[in-house]
């Protein structure tokens, strides 16, 4: 496709490559773009990505695997949009997704990205594991299938299939049961929310997934949805309405904060730990949600909450977004974002690195292992911390 | 013809000459006041023209609605004795030049809210209080097409107002609006006070923002939870053009459970924020402005105010930082009303 | 097999070398109007030793080396005109030392302005550095190497006047240190030891700076900006002269630009003031606005627009989006302050002739010993015509600078040509000898300061 036909052809040249996008909001270092921080070559910065896209569409450079890797190494963390001082900044990620769509249409994307999408198409999850195993995480929890309860508890792919993330799914389920919330899950009937599919540029598949989910939810009479993952939260809150999917969607931290303030959860057990919280991109920069997780942690007795230097809008992405928790274009180096982030967490002196996203959970947990910090730092989801503090096993 | 309707006889027969005797910035007795205002009316020079800090208050003090302030401004221009230095006048005139194309005109056929030149303050008109009310002048690049121009009263440039205002009214009228809720108090003053005074037709009904907010709050009465805040109000100079609407300030405070602190600089004695005074030519102006600001803020603080409520974005820009540094929170009236109905205004922590 | 590539990969590791089209494409560009030229390799070293090995290899293989910091000179100073290796120095980003008592910092060459500002604010809030108006990705070392100026220029001069020492890799691979560090003392002073002058203003042709010791200055609790406006550009030099006599300001800048209209045709001053108390602040303000500038205000010639507390650092610039085109370039000059009115008038004409809204700015350096005067020309990167106009305007302006008796600040190739035409022939010859001595194979940033 020529530049003239590209949806953002009239604005992609406006990037000056000034480099503000590399900084966090608090200017602390110059590698808060996870891809740029990993590779430290200008091609991997946001500006580099935009200039290369333009050059490719303009015919100045040819497609190559390296080019597609550069494009797909973007984790969609939104740091660039938040920092860019120019008027078109709100469309930066749209431009990158549109560029990815171009590559998808030509079938020229990284092999792992292709697999990611094919697996979702076939089995409703990027791992390619059978649909019939999606609900296995629930075994023994006594959680009911959704049959018109007040909330649909939407777990998502990572929470359903990743063994570490499953522990968070179960913990959240237990906490909701303990609080007496009326909720149900879809189990094997659950299908991918599509957030990453959209981010990878596969618009048709995304529309299929969204449309399918919306019809399914409506059929079941779903009105309120609580999600484990901020990625699901983002898709259902911000994208589904465009396809007539108007539900009352909340991330679980918002619900838990309300339950605690209404005293429906008895947070009585003292944990005596120092915790630092890692802001997930899709809850934080994408949806301005910074305080609910912290408010929850502060209600737990014995908890000392410490902030990393780069917190809230300045948080460094764990590197899992844009499908990279699977596609893994940013791994293999001590500059890998997840490894950098756990080192930043350790610097605070905290014992626990708390997260509120199953992707962050698996990415940072693996990084702790690689950094050999297992006896110094534990990664836990907020659902797990709340479950512990409610005196449940 | 667009010209100021000033009635000499009304001044001659005036029982108080309050326009000048009540002036907070000049010490004038009644006899002197009478002499000087008539000199001014006749086009002669007067020390009043040189000493006036353009606070607008005499518009309110005048018992016969004879527009003494508009007169002073016209004569300052005629005799070339503007209060501000030339570069600031030129800058002020340039500010109002729209240079990024024509605005998008959507026909409304009903009431609308006009943001004037405050299109970048859209975050102050969100939530239930403004639901369903169409807004005009939402594009910061085109907002000077909706500029009421009354700011030029500080610049001794009534000529600029009279030249540009009819065109601005035309632009607003193109939206086919019946009522215009004015985001800025000064726009309201323009349409309700200045236009009649100079014979400019206004083909829509101006509505004061606070009146609108008060009515909306009454509609949403069940949702109001008392804010329980001790508040001080920064009354802007433009409020002097619509004194009949000033009561809505206290009405709103009463309705939302805000306790208005007992302080000195209220009502007729309100102090100018000093924003324009600090740049005036007259020696000592910068210090005068600083002194006014200090007195005003100390007055609020000593009375125990927790919050300073603003009406005017210019006052906010001038005083906001200082208010915050003195331990009080600056807030716009619309945001305070949002708090009262349980909403979280942008930027309120 | 590409032996140079293999050797480079051996030095920095495969991940930090590239000869792939994508990297070569991106690193061929300067962000201004300079035509791109592709390098053969892009390398990102981490240590001084890495750089030594790279430079020795380059000499052996006769491959040009182009050092790159933030890449924000906008004068094409890091464009590989003759191909070769682009050395992206930004991975060398450690802040090595801050000495609070002696007020200096030692940083590696890749430390950015924003990073240092943030670090000082957090860890040494009573110290600050002179931060330039460039995007904060600009490096400390790069800015010093081109004799940049920042927001402490008025009391303290050029950023290159704030140097306590350098560590440099010579084009032949040796490492040299200059300043007190060179005799094993701490990095607290440059004088009176032998000079660093061989590496400043030489546009990367005499060596690669790897470490910089930068003087820091007191940071007061209150910092803010006061605004003052005049219409008559002839008043600007005398106002700068008077304000610098007063010695109360941290930064004095006068600017004028066509857009937005409120600045057009007016000379707008920003005067930075710092104080540790309200008493000090009011004292300084009284001296500046009432006593010194009061005469202009009373005559109606100058207007005070207020003082706003809080200095925006780093400063955010949106100049590049003015033509919705992602591009701008400027001619920076060092001029006598007395030339401000002509610089403004003639610069306006050039802009108007090329259909570009004019933007000019003068920053006072030292006690008005000089000013940095800049003319900025925005262009639309997607419109070749607008790039051509900008280029022509820039060249005309380069000529104007010399005509008016100033010097071009960080000359691109065109500016270098004009300067060489005027340079003292003995000086030119000496420059040639120095280059020959330090860089016998001519590998360092070729194309620049070609004086042979």
Number of strands of chain B: 8
Contiguous low-pLDDT stretches of chain B (5 residues minimum) are none
Q: N-to-C SSE series of chain B?
A: HHHHHHHEEHEHEHEHEHEHEH
Q: Kindly report the oligomeric state of this protein.
A: heterotrimer
Number of helices of chain A: 17
The share of residues in extended strands of chain B comes to: 5-15%
Which CATH first-tier class of the largest domain in chain B would you pick? Alpha Beta
Q: In the residues of chain B, how many domains can be counted?
A: 3
Biggest β-sheet description of chain A? 4 strands, parallel
Which chains have the largest interface? A-C, 38 and 45 residues
Order of helices and strands of chain A: HHHHHHEHHEHHEHEHEHEHHEHEH
CATH architectural designation of the largest domain in chain B: 3-Layer(aba) Sandwich
Whole-angstrom Rg of chain B: 20 Å
Strand content of chain A: 5-15%
- Output the structural class of chain A: alpha/beta
User: Number of helix segments of chain B?
Assistant: 14
Give descriptors for this structure.
A: 393 residues; Rossmann fold; 4-stranded parallel beta sheet; 17 helices; 43% helix; globular; B: 349 residues; alpha/beta; 41% helix; 10% strand
